[in-house]
UniProtKB/TrEMBL annotation, chain B:
Domain RNA polymerase sigma-70 region: 14-77
CDD domains recorded: Sigma70_r4
InterPro entries named among the record's database cross-references: RNA_pol_sigma-70-like (IPR039425), RNA_pol_sigma-70_dom (IPR014284), RNA_pol_sigma70_r2 (IPR007627), RNA_pol_sigma70_r4_t2 (IPR013249), RNA_pol_sigma_r2 (IPR013325), RNA_pol_sigma_r3/r4-like (IPR013324), WH-like_DNA-bd_sf (IPR036388)
Top-level division of the source organism's lineage: Bacteria
Organism, as annotated: Polaribacter marinus
Gene Ontology MF terms: DNA binding; sigma factor activity
Family stated for the protein in its record: Belongs to the sigma-70 factor family. ECF subfamily.
The protein's name in its UniProt record: Sigma-70 family RNA polymerase sigma factor
Keyword Magnesium: no
Amino acid sequence: MFKNLRITCDEATTICDKNQYGEATLLEKVKLNIHFIRCRICGVYSKQNVFLSKIYKNYSKECKEKKHCLTKEEKEDLKHKLKT
Amino acid sequence: MLQEKITLNTDKWIDNYADYLYNYAVSRVNNSDLAKDLVQDTFFAGLKSAKNFQGKSTERTWLVSILKRKVIDYYRKINSKKGQAEVRMNFYNDGENEGDWIEERVPQSWDNQSERDIENEELKEQIERCIDNLPEKYAMVFKMKTIQGFETEEICKELEITPSNLWVIVHRARTQLRKCMEDNWFNN
């Protein structure tokens, strides 16, 4: 039974990443925590991942507030191109 | 049924929809010039198939549906591109060590991990540089998921990929970004 719960570091960190978006399943989280018992490296990854998520979230907030516009010149240029 | 003849006024199209379409594109691809090209292609395609526009949706929705197609086409193109620069892997992908961390890629502890830095402008610039270093496909999916905050289902639908596919891409993007941030920020 426990054999099925064993996962590789690649799989563990994939779950860890998925978990950053709150989308890991219960079984995945169980597997991940079992993996942490014997793998210190993935534990480090996981801790740092939480911090990275915070940074990305803050960066994301700023990005989403930004409204992107084409310049007047770009629009005129586009109009011109469409007419020809 | 009487059908109104559709008269197209491309000047109006651009004034009315160019910014909207550009925002749509820029939040999906990791490159503003490319986003501009996609918008231009969309207008051209719209013009070409204007006679097929049946007025069932608004003009804007119709143009967005064309742009959506352009985004998928682009994603497919970068996804199938052969000879793409080899991605730096973090895990062994075969042999008895399969799935283990590659020794020189093992996460190191960080020297300067400070909560105070979160608002730091330079940190943001470094994140941008690291995202730009990712293979385009990874950058695109990572940004849609993490920066734009789209639902998994929505991204899968838009790019025609499966959720497990999405998570593998997000995972590869995040491990690579982590390494880039480690080398250039945390342990620099």
